[in-house]
Amino acid sequence: MMDKVIKFRKIIGQTLRFLRTQKRLTQIQVAKKMGCSRPNVTQFENDGLDSMGIIFSFCEAMGVDVREFFAILPAMVDSNGEFRVHPKRLLEILRKDIEDVCEKRGVKAEVSIVTRILS
């Protein structure tokens, strides 16, 4: 059981690193926004987190809604519970997000274009 907990913590850390790099933020920038040091951010990304409060702080520092973090988390794990970005699953998440934005703005033509591009 403890191995699974450690593995899950690492997956959380790796997912946070993935999101940080996607946002083009450095560890120093995130650390400043969190009020901690860069080595702390490195530790969070390498060893994972055991506190929901830190997950919320990390997401807030990156400008990521915590729901986005938890929505993307399943796309980061393979069937063996190992960290691996599944491009197809990630595209499904992105497609849904893009379609939602287009629908809210009333831009239906772009939805079909985006769907064809991502397919």
Note down, in words, how this protein is organized:
The structure is a single chain. The mean pLDDT is 75. The protein has a domain of 63 residues: 434 Repressor (Amino-terminal Domain) (Orthogonal Bundle), CATH 1.10.260. The protein has seven helices and no strands. Helix 2 packs across helix 3 and helix 6 runs antiparallel to helix 7. With 119 residues, it is mostly helical. Helix content is 73%, strand content 0%.
Q: What top-tier CATH class of the domain at 2-64 fits best?
A: Mainly Alpha
Q: Name the poorly predicted regions.
A: none
How many helices? The count is 7
How many runs of DSSP E, i.e. beta strands? 0
Main beta-sheet strand count, sense and barrel state:
none
The CATH architecture of the domain at 2-64 comes to: Orthogonal Bundle
Order of helices and strands: HHHHHHH
Radius of gyration: 16 Å
Decide which structural class fits the backbone.
mainly alpha
**How much is the average pLDDT?**
75
Distance between the termini: 38 Å
β-strand percent reads: under 5%
The name of the CATH superfamily of the domain at 2-64 reads lambda repressor-like DNA-binding domains
SSE map:
Elements: H1 2-22, H2 27-34, H3 38-47, H4 52-62, H5 66-72, H6 87-105, H7 108-118
Summarize the structure.
The chain has 119 residues and is mainly alpha-helical. It has a domain at 2-64: lambda repressor-like DNA-binding domains (434 Repressor (Amino-terminal Domain), Orthogonal Bundle), CATH 1.10.260.40. It is built from seven helices and no strands.
